Every structure is written in structure tokens, then in C-alpha cells.
Amino acid sequence: MDNSISLVQLILHANFIVQLIMLGLVAMSVYSWAIMFEVNNRVKKYRNEQVQFDKLFWAGHHIQKLYDYYLQHKENIFGKSIIFCSGLREFNNLKDTGILRGDTILEGMERTVSIAISQEAKELDRKLPALATIGAVSPYIGLVGTVWGIMSSFNTLGGVEQATISVVAPHIAEALIATALGLFVAIPAVIGHSRLSNQVDDVLSGYESFQDDLCILLLKEAHRDEVQQQHQESF
């Protein structure tokens, strides 16, 4: 209990500028934890959507029926389902214009699906750069507070005739709290950013694999339609 009171007293008696820096670091810590919780929940949501979509996609349903289903439930379209809908919409547009050549369809599909994946990546990555910034700069902000506190302490002690360790120690301790606080903010932010970035990359890797599967599936569909068209024209 005495140590807690001592720490509080050190903070309360610190230089005003150092107190402002500490307050800023506390605010950064709160914001970084809020980002981690938000991004973690978002990744969980996208992972769950991915599992649900895979169940529907690989259940053997005709892709056009699955596309119609998602068009009727637009409010639930995000993640892999929006990538699927973007690709199939482009496929249908090309087919409606009479384009059934595989290379043309593949080019249009890859471009459209890549754009959709990029948009989902931006949503998944949202606020992660801010978390990385907090992890990178907070130790230096704490160090500035320490340097400022030590300089202020030396100015204060300049008028003291005998500066013993008992006189100097509290002032140095006040300054060092800023460095400790900066590390306290940075370490969770760096670990959280690394962990969440890996989770986001894992989700995006699944999207890129699905892009290949979707393109192959729709190329087969286009080839089947082209063969049917040629067969009809031959009669």
C-alpha cells in the first residue's frame, strides 16, 4: 500500500509538462486497447462469415442460385460473400455482352475480384496503422518526459546547498516514471499489432485462395456456355 501511495505522490509532484506527457501516454494506452478489441472482434466476425460462406459455396448449390440468395440478403454481404458477388456480377455482365472467351473472362474476373479483396483488406486493416504508430512512438514520448523531468529537477536543485541522494532520488524517480509508462503503452501495442496483423493476413490468404477457385469454376461455366452456343449455331 505504501508503494502505491509513493507512486501516486511521485506522479502528483512531477513537473507539469511531465504530467501532461504521462496523461497523453495514458490516453494512447486506452486508445490502443480500444483498437485491439475492435480489430479482434472484426477479425472474428470475418472468420465466422468465411466459415458460413464456405458451407454454402461447397454444398453443391448452383452458383447462380447462391448469387441470387446473397442479392436477397444484401445487408449480410461482406468478406468472402462480397468477393463472390463481385466476381459473379462481372461474369454475368461479360456473358450478357456475348463475351464467352476464357482469357477475356479470366482477365475481367481477376481484376474485379482483386479490387473486392483490396477493399475488404482496407476494412480489416482499419486502425491497425494507428496501433503500430502508438507502439513505435510511445517509448520516445516517455523518454522526452524523462529528459524534461531530469532537466527540471536539476534546475530545481540548483539552489540547494547540499544535494544528497535523498534529495535527488525523488526527482529522478518522477522523471523515470514517464519512460516506464511509455514502455507500458508500447509493449502491448506492438504485441497486439503483430498478432492481429497475422490474423488479418490469414483471412486475406483465404480470400486469395478463393479467388483462384472462383475463377476456375466460372471459366468452366463459361466454357460450358460456349460449347452450348456453338452446338446451337451448328443446327
From TrEMBL:
Membrane topology: Multi-pass membrane protein
Ranges of residues in domain MotA/TolQ/ExbB proton channel: 94-208
Annotated InterPro entries: ExbB/TolQ_transport, MotA_ExbB_proton_chnl, Tol-Pal_TolQ
Highest taxon above the source species: Bacteria
Record keywords: Cell cycle, Cell division, Cell inner membrane, Cell membrane, Membrane, Protein transport, Transmembrane, Transmembrane helix, Transport
Transmembrane segment boundaries: 16-37, 128-151, 171-191
GO annotation, biological process: bacteriocin transport; cell division; protein import
Main localization, broad class: membrane
Subcellular location: Cell membrane; Membrane
Signal sequence extent: none
Any single GO CC term annotated in Swiss-Prot or TrEMBL for this entry: plasma membrane
Family in the record: Belongs to the exbB/tolQ family.
Protein name in UniProt: Protein TolQ
